[in-house]
Design a protein that fits this description.
With about 325 residues, this protein is α/β, with parallel strands linked by helices. Helices cover about 45% and strands about 15% of the residues. It folds into two domains: about 180 residues, 3-Layer(aba) Sandwich (Isopropylmalate Dehydrogenase); about 150 residues, 3-Layer(aba) Sandwich (Isopropylmalate Dehydrogenase). It contains eleven helices and twelve strands.
């Protein structure tokens, strides 16, 4: 059995999102058990199916607007987020799913579960929808403001293993986010990183990827520092949402637009689905010693279910064990 720990109190809607998702997951997958870390008084009325679902009671929730994640993680050990992370560290569960505050999730995974040998940094890695219908791995998108070439190399190795195991890509390609496609583009650190990645064994490096290529990406993986990655991914998300609003305005602006919508409704629904990453799950926390998936804070129950499905696949494919074998055996860097 795969034991999945769920931060049931997390996110904007708490147990109203996580409990229905857990019930659907145990119904669909007979090889999982789910432990809900959250407010038992709120969970029980929603739990119409408790087969292979148990509850660890805690009323304490990590605030979505937490400004000091390190302090919060160290002080709030009775929070649902901390408790599920400690359960994973102690091998009481095999993995973690949460939609709690992003920086708190990253810090908790780092400080509690701990980094793998050979990983000097932890990365936040979402699956991003792409033009060809196959999602791309982009990392880091917010865990680290600055990174050295060897950090990007470690991320590339981890992501290569994940792409093989989770996305079933035989020989994943890797690109580096930069302001131009030529090898000499970017800051000095970008040039150094390009050279480092070009000579790194264990990855299939294809060169620089420009920001305007992310949604029609020529590589399966894109590595970058967390500052650049966060700007790129939020720009992409904001553009997609705004285009949707503009399209609705144009449809409602005229009678012809409303008539056209009736004929185009199915096409527009398929277009929306192609742009929606919720089907593939949440962002993976790469670099720690157990699979951790972070769903959006405002995720609905189906999106959270997809995150549970995603982390199950990570455990089933033994992604951490494979990464350990692939990473160079070097001492951990002190932060």
């Amino acid at each position: 059995m795969i034991r999945i720990g769920v931060d049931a109190n997390g996110g904007d809607n708490g147990v109203n999102t996580t409990v229905p998702a857990a019930m659907k997951a145990v119904k669909d997958f007979k090889d999982i058990e789910i432990v809900l870390f959250g407010d038992e008084d709120k969970i029980k009325p929603l739990l119409t199916n408790n087969e292979r679902i148990t509850i660890v009671d805690t009323k304490v929730t990590m605030d979505m607007g937490e400004h000091d994640p390190v302090r919060a993680v160290r002080k709030m050990k009775d929070s649902s987020l901390d408790m599920v992370m400690y359960a994973c560290k102690n091998k009481e569960v095999d993995c973690v799913v949460t939609n709690g505050p992003t920086q708190c999730v990253v810090v908790a995974a780092h400080l509690i579960i701990r980094r793998l040998d050979g990983m000097d940094r932890v990365a936040l890695c979402p699956l991003v929808s792409n033009f060809d219908g196959n999602p791309r791995l982009i990392l880091d998108v917010g865990a680290n403001v600055e990174l050295r070439p060897e950090h990007l190399g470690q991320f590339a190795i981890f992501a290569t293993v994940a792409a093989k195991k989770v996305l079933k890509i035989e020989n994943p390609t890797v690109g580096m986010l930069n302001i131009g496609s030529e090898p000499g583009k970017g800051r000095e650190i970008d040039k150094e990183s390009y050279d480092y990645l070009s000579n790194l064994e264990g990855i299939n490096f294809k060169g620089n990827i420009e920001p305007n290529q992310i949604i029609d990406c020529p590589t399966d993986i894109v590595v970058c520092d967390g500052y650049s990655g966060n700007i790129a991914i939020k720009t992409l998300e904001g553009t997609a949402k705004t285009m949707g609003k503009m399209l609705k305005q144009e449809i409602k602006a005229s009678f012809g637009g409303k008539i056209g919508y009736l004929f185009m409704k199915k096409n527009l629904e398929r277009f929306k689905k192609r742009m929606d990453s919720s089907e593939v799950g949440g962002a993976m926390i790469f670099g720690v010693g157990a699979p951790v998936v972070k769903a959006h804070g405002n995720a609905d129950s189906y999106t959270f279910y997809c995150a549970i499905r995603q982390v199950r696949k990570m455990v089933e494919s033994k992604i951490i064990e494979t990464v350990i074998e692939a990473l160079p055996k070097t001492p951990k860097e002190e932060i």
